Amino acid sequence: MTTKRIVIISAGLSTPSSTRQLADRMTADAVSIMRERGVEVEAQVFELRDLAHDITNHLLLGFAPPKLQEALDAVATADGLIAVTPIFSTSYAGLFKSFIDVIDPQALTDLPVLIGATGGTSRHSLAIDYAIRPLFTYLHAIPVTTGVFAATSDWGNGGDGVRSLPDRIFRGAKEFAELVERTDRSDLVSDPFALDRPVGHLVGGFTGE
Amino acid sequence: MQFGIFTVTDITQDPTTGRTPSEHERIKGTVAIAKHAEEVGLDVFALGEHHNPPFWSSSPTTTLANIAGQTSTLQLSTATTLITTNDPVKLAEDYAMLQHVSDGRVDLMLGRGNTGPVYPWFGQDIRQGLPLALENYELLHRLWREDVVDWSGKFRTPLQGFTATPRPLDDVPPFVWHGSIRTPEVADQAAFYGDGFFANHIFWPASHTQRMIALYRQRFEHHGHGTAAQAIVGLGGQVFMRKNSQDAVNEFRPYFDNAPVYGHGPSLEDFTQQTPLTVGSPQEVVDKTLGFRDYVGDYQRQLWLIDHAGLPLKTVLEQLDLLGEEVVPVLRKEFAKNRPAEVPDAPTHASLVQAKYGDQAPRQATPNANRGDNLTLGSPYQDTAVVDSSKPGSAFGAAATRKEFVR
């Protein structure tokens, strides 16, 4: 049985956070879909709130304190990413973007991503498609077509009366699970400092190898 | 092992007094710092290069030549020389000149620089930073080793029949260190040429430096320059000392909190824990510095940053006194213990001359009258057989394989 590693980042600022709640539901669906198909999954959750000072220090200094480095390494070597942020002032939370900004620009290449977002009303739901999706596309990650937006009213019965929040979560999780199952990304990640890396990889090559 | 200081040449307001020194004051102060480094028994002074305020050091060889004229043993180096935006031809000329006027007390540390606009100001593109560093150094390397160079590359106008003058002192080029914080290619570049590698270690966690050095050592061996333990490693460090640890912390904190780069970021305590910065007693500096060996192996050069963030000249000179009296003598003794015999010292002009010539007299380049026949007759110098330029880029150049001199 193969084991896939997925990472969840949640950029909610309050505690408890509906963003984290959405992230957990998306994770639960994705994990159970994969397990039903015989794929073992390890899921690791990072609350960006806990990393907020480290993220700022990284922006100022250029290196990650240990706790943040652990999160960056986890994302870079994952088979899938579930990324969930509140929508503030028409776009992702600043903390969410700051975290994305300290990720190495190559680190998300080919990474399946399931996007989630929370907001006060469903009128912000397109923020997933005009703000968050281009961000991951720019980084050469692969966001699945369904993004899950949860407005406050979705947590009761005032949401979309045709397709409920659980339906939308399931649909996104299924698309995500199918991509994660197929990727061998976590086996391919190369470490530029690895001592057993073949030589002659340099620009122009020193040795002509 | 060599011990010394390096400066980035920032002109920064003293946060405790609100006073900012003028360029002239800081330039003269830095020369005083270098002279005092020699007086207290340090080995190396290394000078940064920048082309924008609030830094002053745009012309390092001018400053280093002035220091050379006022010192007698101090090794003069750079931290760093911009191999990306400087013309390698001018670098070859300037540093060979500095070698002559300082009687060989020169080496260089090459780096790519960290100020984006410097690239366009000097007609380059920052996205080509690494290719520039590789190509420019290859040309610099040849200009110091071949009397007449024909060359063409991607970034600079081609050269036909060019001789960089003066030739390096004793026909031995300055030793070169390559500095990089996070680029494995630069560690490989240093290893390829058998040059030194310097990890400016001061803003980054030890685990990262450890991996860069391990990679460089492995590549050094791979490229056939010796064992991994024989690779030439230098480290940066950053210290502030007072006799009592708490006095050091109290005095340095405002400078730390307002410093360029890390000011208004992490706390002094977190930063001290995560990076090589040591703020405390001389004994704490000794202990922390000795600990570097545990993760990079026995190394050749330790430089400290002691004069930035607006620290007044008087304070910096006191730091030098502490380094000279209480830190470096202990470190010399301790680093010598259990140091394997195969681990070399940092190359100096004297050791490079010895390695190249043994007991023979070094070559003294003496030009012919120039009738424009450099290309037709092979060499513009009286004492040289026709230079074999068929081996560009060999680790020690054509000069190293010359067996006899035609006098």
From TrEMBL, chain A:
PANTHER family: FMN REDUCTASE (NADPH)
Keywords of this entry: Flavoprotein, FMN, Oxidoreductase
Lineage: superkingdom: Bacteria
Record-given protein name: FMN reductase
InterPro entries hit by this protein: CE1759_FMN_reduct, Flavoprotein-like_sf, FMN_Rdtase-like_dom, NAD(P)H-dep_FMN_reductase
Classification via SUPFAM superfamilies: Flavoproteins
All residue ranges annotated as the NADPH-dependent FMN reductase-like domain in the record: 5-155
Protein source organism: Agromyces humatus
TrEMBL record, chain B:
Superkingdom of source: Bacteria
Alphabetically ordered keywords of this record: Monooxygenase, Oxidoreductase
InterPro entries to which the protein is assigned, alphabetical: Bact_Lucif_Oxidored (IPR050766), LLM_FMN-dep_put (IPR023934), Luciferase-like_dom (IPR011251), Luciferase-like_sf (IPR036661)
Region (Disordered) residue spans: 362-407
Luciferase-like domain residues: 1-294
Pfam families from the UniProt entry: Bac_luciferase (PF00296)
Biased composition (Polar residues): 363-382
UniProt name for this protein: LLM class flavin-dependent oxidoreductase
Lineage: Bacteria, Bacillati, Actinomycetota, Actinomycetes, Micrococcales
